[in-house]
């Protein structure tokens, strides 16, 4: 966002004495102190369809938007939905199906949808602005990582490769179903466990891929990192689809952006998977070594993938 804003990011509207986290960092959400020991945590996520099913798209959009709240260690409270719809191309009944999917996931998260906005749009877009709440002294940002913290990933990678294959009608149906359920799965358990196990930093893994979001964490925390590729969970079948050319332009831009900052002893395809743009991916957590095993046990599907270092380099081995 800061790159898009350019000089206007210094506008007074972006600052306030009660603003705890704003656009100046790469955190997942903005945080505003309420003055009573609590803080509002706010985010927005909107995107075009990543799967074929209207209900599934709505479910994924909701889970993806909620993820930023969970990554900050907050609890979702309310949401506003946004719908852009090509009314002369697609029937409104189909939009209702998308919305029902989003409502189902918001209900699961106990997040109240208080309203929204819709417009006529040349292509369908859907998403949410979500507000959460947290104790001001219990927020988890991406800037608290320390050398020797263990890195944990709570969902497997490969979602960008698989959704690209879905769009190109090249994805096996069972793999598509597995990817959809992975994207729909809320990061609520992973987010709640941040406090329980003294996590120092966290972020969700979405459009910049694992390495892109890890680079932001390292920069904000003033540390480096080592990622052990063989320990990174990858969705079964994703590597085969990648070998068949299922690779999105956004993921390629991620990889090109990372090249100056990453030292790697693995091949190009492993790096591509680490730079793969995810939708509704898992949390990337930096946690003290003595707490790592308990966090992994508390969060099904999570894996230790590396550690933070005092040497300010990003390495893949």
Cα gyration radius (Å): 19 Å
The CATH homologous superfamily of the largest domain is termed: PurM-like C-terminal domain
Element pattern in H and E: HEEEHEHEEEHHHEHEHHEHEHEE
Q: Give a count of the beta strands, DSSP E runs of length 2 or more.
A: 13
Question: What's the structural domain tally?
Answer: 2
Mean of all residue-level pLDDT scores: 96
**Order of strands, widest sheet:** 8-11-7-12-9-13-10
CATH topology of the largest domain: Phosphoribosyl-aminoimidazole Synthetase, Chain A, domain 2
Helix content: 25-40%
Q: What would you call the shape?
A: globular
In a nutshell, what does this entry contain?
By secondary structure, the protein is α+β, with helices and mostly antiparallel strands.
Verbal overview:
With 317 residues, the chain is α+β, with helices and mostly antiparallel strands. The chain has 2 domains: 2-138, PurM-like, N-terminal domain (60s Ribosomal Protein L30, Chain: A), CATH 3.30.1330.10; 150-316, Phosphoribosyl-aminoimidazole Synthetase, Chain A, domain 2 (Alpha-Beta Complex). Helices cover 37% and strands 25% of the residues. It has 11 helices and 13 strands. The chain has helices spanning 2-5, 54-71, 92-108, 159-167, 173-184, 188-196, 209-221, 238-243, 249-258, 268-275, 289-298; strands spanning 19-21, 30-33, 38-47, 75-85, 112-120, 125-135, 150-153, 201-204, 224-227, 262-264, 283-287, 303-309, 314-316. It has a 7-stranded mixed β-sheet with strand order 8-11-7-12-9-13-10, with helices on both faces. A hairpin with a 4-residue loop joins strand 2 (30-33) and strand 3 (38-47). Helix 2 runs parallel beside helix 3, helix 4 (159-167) packs across helix 5 and helix 7 (209-221) runs parallel beside helix 9. The two termini are 30 Å apart. The mean pLDDT is 96.
């Amino acid at each position: 966002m800061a790159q898009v804003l350019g000089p206007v990011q210094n506008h007074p509207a972006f600052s306030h004495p009660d603003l705890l986290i704003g656009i100046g960092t790469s955190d997942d959400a903005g945080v505003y102190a309420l003055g009573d020991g609590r803080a509002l945590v706010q985010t927005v996520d909107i995107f075009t369809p990543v799967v074929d099913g209207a209900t599934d798209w709505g479910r994924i959009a909701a889970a993806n938007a909620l993820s930023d709240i969970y990554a900050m260690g907050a609890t979702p409270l309310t949401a506003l939905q946004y719908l852009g719809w090509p009314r002369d191309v697609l029937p409104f009944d189909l939009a209702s199906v998308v919305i029902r999917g989003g409502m189902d996931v918001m209900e699961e998260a106990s997040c109240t949808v208080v309203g929204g906005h819709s417009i006529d749009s040349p292509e369908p877009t859907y998403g949410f602005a979500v507000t959460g709440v947290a104790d001001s002294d219990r927020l988890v940002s991406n800037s608290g990582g320390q050398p020797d913290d263990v890195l944990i990933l709570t969902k497997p990678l490969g979602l960008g490769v698989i959704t690209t294959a879905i769009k190109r009608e090249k994805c096996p149906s069972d793999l598509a179903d597995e990817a959809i359920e992975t994207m729909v799965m809320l990061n609520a358990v992973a987010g709640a466990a941040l406090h329980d196990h003294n996590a120092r930093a966290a972020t969700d893994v979405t459009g910049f891929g694992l390495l892109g979001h890890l680079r932001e964490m390292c920069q904000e925390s003033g540390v480096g990192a080592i990622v052990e590729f063989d320990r990174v969970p990858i969705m079964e079948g994703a590597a085969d689809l990648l070998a068949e050319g299922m690779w999105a332009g956004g993921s390629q831009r991620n990889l090109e952006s990372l090249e100056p900052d990453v030292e790697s002893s693995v091949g190009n395809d492993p790096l591509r998977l680490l730079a793969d743009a995810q939708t509704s991916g898992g949390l990337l957590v930096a946690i003290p070594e003595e707490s790592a095993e308990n966090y992994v046990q508390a969060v099904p599907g999570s894996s230790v993938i590396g550690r933070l270092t005092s040497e300010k380099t990003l390495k893949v081995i």
